[in-house]
Specification:
The complex is a heterodimer of chains A (60) and B (391). With 60 residues, chain A is α+β, with helices and mostly antiparallel strands. Chain A has two helices and four strands, in the order E-H-E-E-H-E. Chain B has a domain of 191 residues: 3-Layer(bba) Sandwich (FAD/NAD(P)-binding domain), CATH 3.50.50.60. Classes of the chains: A alpha+beta (60), B alpha/beta (391).
Chain lengths: 60, 391
């Protein structure tokens, strides 16, 4: 899943602008990720602060 | 709530649209999702003086600094100085966006637009299959605003276009990912905007220093998304500052993404017009977006004032907007996109070589386009691909 490090995030919205699935939204200082995320990782590469990361989902 | 026009986003593009449409008599509501218009800033804040003056009556409180010209530094340190104020010709302003954006929103309010902050657009309302307004959240409460026409001036993270079926997603090669410090340092040049080129310094982009007042500057970096990895901009900016301004003090930190895609296929849909960064109208070479957004805002406001009373707001009727902005802003960003595509893949040797080719030529009074012309003239073979664009 896409993980957002809220302590690193500069809430600029660059990730929202590149998301091919329109799965991201910037609300004030908060990046929301919805279920449309395809885990393509495009946003993780363009984040100027490196606040986004694809992490393996925990097995449940 | 009902009105004639909803503007989503209260940046320079949205505020100009709202002002022009309200002055022409439309009942306008402008939404801003943030609590504060203009803050946080995600911009280097440079604008052309002449271009700004054509659009608004200037208020000196918006201006942080006035510059004499621009200095370009090649990877090997060779410098070019442009648009030096020899003839008294005016060059550029560095704005205080927090003040500027709010002043433009105030102008829109004075013209009669209703401004709603902390109000986030959530989606389009539809009636008989066509957009009929915006569903929104106003300080956490849901709100429906009915209007025949919606302006998406919602920036790099625009959603309005996507809701209307326009794919505005930027490819990594079509966005500059940026970081910036407001830096205090004795070494800052208060009179010139500086640009540092080089693949190690800023791959597919540049580092800038724009003066913001005495010994203060916006020192920032743009890296092309396709050449970036997680956190590249902030890492390279820290390296640059450590090397060039080792005693510099960071008073503010800013980040952002700048569209450098050139014109996108469409910026209109039934009942929807996109303006500014939302329409990807920023300049692919400089990354400047303020003036283009304001110009597009004026066009959108005028067209809204013409079309809404006639009830003609379908995509077909809104082609007048496409035509107007593409003939003006569009031409420039098409050309600059092609130039950018060429420049981003140059090696440091290429960049040095091009800079050296200007040796002994007076470029002091040239602007960017003039400089490109000289470069093509001096390097006809190397810049063959650019020739048709520049001349």
């Amino acid at each position: 899943m896409l993980s957002v490090n809220r302590y690193k995030c500069g809430y600029c919205g660059a990730c929202v602008g590149v998301c091919p699935a329109a799965a991201l939204e910037l609300v004030e200082t908060w990046i929301e990720v919805n279920d449309d995320c395809t885990k393509c990782g495009r946003c993780t590469k363009i984040c100027p602060l490196g606040a986004l990361e694809l992490v393996k989902e925990a097995q449940t | 709530m009902k009105c004639d026009l909803v503007v989503v986003g209260a940046g320079p593009g949205g505020s100009m649209t709202a002002k022009v449409a309200a002055e022409a008599g439309l009942d306008v509501v402008m939404l801003e999702k943030r609590q504060e218009i203009g803050d946080p800033v995600r911009c280097a804040e440079g604008v052309s003086k002449a271009a700004l003056r054509k659009l608004v009556d200037l208020d000196p409180v918006w201006i942080s600094a006035e510059v004499k010209g621009a200095r370009l530094r090649a990877p090997d340190g060779t410098e070019i100085v442009m648009s030096e104020d020899r003839t008294g010709a005016e060059v550029g302003y560095v704005l205080e966006r927090k003040v500027f954006d709010r002043a433009l929103a105030r102008d829109a309010a004075e013209a009669g637009a209703k401004v709603m902050v902390k109000t986030r657009a959530l989606g389009l309302l539809h009636e008989k299959g066509v957009p009929s307004g915006i569903s929104a959240q106003f300080v956490g409460e849901s709100l429906k605003i009915e209007a025949p026409l919606i302006i998406g001036a919602d920036g790099v993270e625009s959603k309005v276009g996507r809701w209307a079926g326009i794919d505005t997603a930027l490819k990594p090669k079509d966005i500059e990912t940026c970081a910036q410090f407001l830096l205090q340092d004795e070494k800052i040049d208060d009179e010139y905007c500086e640009f540092y080129l080089g693949n190690d310094i800023a791959p597919g982009g540049y580092v800038w220093s724009f003066p913001k007042g005495e010994k203060l500057a916006n020192v920032g970096i743009g890296v092309l998304g396709s050449k970036a990895n997680s956190g590249t901009p902030i890492r390279l900016l820290r390296e640059f500052v450590a090397k060039n301004f080792p005693d510099g003090k960071i008073l503010e930190m800013m980040v952002g993404g700048v569209p450098v895609s050139g014109p996108i296929e469409t910026t209109t849909a039934d009942g929807v017009i996109l303006v500014g960064d939302a329409a990807r109208q920023s300049d692919p070479i400089t990354g400047g977006g303020i003036i283009n957004a304001m110009r597009a805002g004026v066009m959108a406001g005028e067209i809204a004032a013409d079309q809404v009373p006639k009830g003609e707001v379908d995509k077909e009727s809104l082609q007048i907007y496409e035509k107007r902005w593409r003939e003006t802003i569009g031409k420039q960003i098409t050309r600059n996109f092609a130039v950018k595509e060429f420049f981003v893949d140059l090696t440091d040797d290429d960049l040095n070589h091009l800079t050296h080719s200007l040796n002994g030529i007076n470029v002091a009074e040239l602007d960017l386009r003039g400089l490109l012309k000289v470069l093509v003239r001096q390097n006809p073979k190397h810049l063959l691909k650019l020739r048709h664009l520049i001349v």
